[in-house]
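During the no-cost extension, the postdoctoral fellow (Dr. R.K.) reprocessed legacy sequence entries with the updated structure-token encoder. One reprocessed record is reproduced below for audit purposes.
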Amino acid sequence: MRLPIDTVAVQFMSAGPAEPVLDFETKAPRLDGNGQPLYSVHLFAISPDSYDTLTVKVASEPKGIGNFTPVKVTNLIASTWDIGGNHGVSFKADKIELAKVTIN
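Re-encoded structure tokens follow.
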């Protein structure tokens, strides 16, 4: 099942730079349906009443992201998976980019 996530009340910070997603067996870069290379970005998700960490896959490498970089996540989707008795949730986004930070 694919579930869109409303990110309006969530702030995201990267936990490090984007990393290429590699095929487990061949170690070749994995591509999305459009032939774009996939990248994983480890994120801290912070809302007013909770926080969590998650890894989000995105096509094309997000630029300028390092440790504790505020980012904007566009069209975040959670997908459930079940393979060989193992199951979980994976996250994918259309885009991860530097967030515009305003100081009051």
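The domain at 2-98 is CATH 2.40.50 (OB fold (Dihydrolipoamide Acetyltransferase, E2P)). The chain has a mean pLDDT of 92. The remaining legacy entries will be reprocessed before the final report is submitted.
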